[in-house]
Amino acid sequence: MEQVKHVLNGSLFWRALMALCLWFGDQWRSSGIVHWFLNPRGWGASASESSLFFKVWSLIRSALCRLYQLLRLDKLFTGSVFLHSWLWCAIPVALAPALCVFRPSLLVLGLAAISYCSLLLVLVRDKNRPLTWSPINRYIILYAAVYLAGTLFSVNLKASLEPGLLTVAFILFPIALYNSITNRSQLDTLVVLVVVVGTLISFYGILQYIFGWGYQSAAWVDSDMFSGISFRVPSTLENPNMLGQYLLLTIPLGGACLLSAKTWGKRVFYLCCCGIMCLCMILTFSRGAWLALLFAGVVFVLFLNPRLILLAPFALIALYFVLPDTVISRFTSIGDLTDNSTSYRVYIWMGVLAMLKDYWLCGIGPGDAAFNAVYPAYSYNGIVAPHSHNLFLQIVCDAGIAALIVFVILLFVYFRMMCSAFSREKDWTSRMLQTACISGVCGFMVQAMTDYSFYNYRLMFFFWAFLALGAASTRRSQLPEGRLLA
């Protein structure tokens, strides 16, 4: 290693490159825009307490506290398991992606409803416990409100009501999860549970590939262009693209656990977890997910150590010699309009854009029925589709341009909150968790450009829960150690 350093230090090109990197770093740190971004003003509990949402919540909570006292429910719930809101929030977060039987979306909704009730019981029972504030909370509530309005103004209210209300219930879940995490042990354990379940789902996907288990759709692969691909892994997410998007969130968390592990036993364990999840990602043959994972990896490395990005070209060259030809040909076909999958999406986007010229203000409402009631009149080449195959376009379809604006602001505030916390964080484990939560959402948004990521409601639920994990990671250092069932 020392010889490599000596050779590199003797290279004029390497020294010039390092000097350029140092200069760029100095410019970045002295930038007024960067300073403004990393030092937000007006963020605090006082700002939250002056909002309309907080005032309405305070009135509702006061009324519920009086009712709780009048009914004398203290003795009934003393020592009750329903007071452990973290447990009830952790169960759906960890298990939602794995539930794939008996209308799993409604099953997740039921588990989320128990979480809401548990937290509400805790807050009503102890009127001195505050509702923990986060910068993204107000935008989550606002986005849920706009989405609810879009549901009520749907072109097919009856068909949009169930998916709309289900979506609103999942959008609001981060607030419950964020408030249920009261100590560091709870946050760390939940992250481990997510990684372990992600590994098990990936292992099941690998077994699917080996034994040919599960449903395969002819629309998933252009058999003329990719004759070497006979099976794409869907695992429990029922679609390889949805599985890829799920892994975009769990793989960075696995990487964070690996890099923050303090014993060799844990390092080997998390290395195996990451390896299994990455192998399953390859077997999805989802080009968008592969590209998004590369982007997430670049973001992760930039936060870990920006100078490591100089090794990216060598890593890509190594991948070219390691990966099989089917994977390379699949990846290099990105953007090829002769591929049926690519041309299919382009035609859908053209039809949706034409539709949104008439429905951009309020959208057409959530759900397949509302989409198919309007989209066929604007479709190109008679392309039939259940959604727009683009998250941002679909948000406008569901609830109008206001929903997209609020969603983009929410993402901006999330990234600003995460980067601001990262710039001040001293604890290594917290920094790694924050890095994972930033890179995971970055990769997810890249994949969202080519797929409607929330078409699978369990994946949508997990994404919103992931935002809460990110928000909780910004205050991890300030949390006490505590117990799981505190």
Short description:
With 486 residues, this protein is mostly helical. 69% of the residues lie in helices and 0% in strands.
Descriptive report:
- Helices cover 69% and strands 0% of the residues.
- It has 486 residues and is mainly alpha-helical.
- The protein is globular and about 75 Å long.
Radius of gyration: 24 Å
- Can you give the mean pLDDT? 86
Structural class estimated from helices and strands: mainly alpha
User: Biggest β-sheet: count, sense, barrel?
Assistant: none
Enumerate how many helices there are, as a single number: 23
Distance between the termini: 48 Å
Helix content: 55-70%
Shape: globular
In N-to-C order, the SSE pattern is: HHHHHHHHHHHHHHHHHHHHHHH
Topology of helices and strands:
Elements (H helix, E strand, L loop, with lengths): L1 H8 L2 H19 L1 H7 L6 H5 L2 H19 L3 H4 L7 H11 L8 H22 L11 H16 L4 H15 L1 H8 L3 H28 L28 H21 L3 H20 L3 H18 L7 H11 L2 H8 L7 H20 L8 H7 L16 H9 L1 H24 L3 H20 L9 H17 L13
Helix pairs in contact: 7-8, 7-11, 7-12, 8-11, 9-10, 9-21, 10-23, 11-23, 12-13, 12-14, 13-14, 13-15, 13-22, 13-23, 15-22, 20-21, 21-22, 22-23
